[in-house]
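Re: weekly structure request thread

Next one in the queue (47 aa):
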Amino acid sequence: MVRTDSHEPTRATYECSDCLHRERTEGFPGLCPECGGAMRNIAVPRE
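Done, posted below.
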């Protein structure tokens, strides 16, 4: 039986567009903690 009522929060992986630092977090991290660059959710496809 597979449990579907997970109590773990959904985490997403964000990547800095400048230094490529990656961070896995529950919410948008804002600016990169390493260089201050813009972070983007890498699970969202880009065209």
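The radius of gyration is 13 Å. The first strand starts at residue 12 and ends at 16.
Next request, please.
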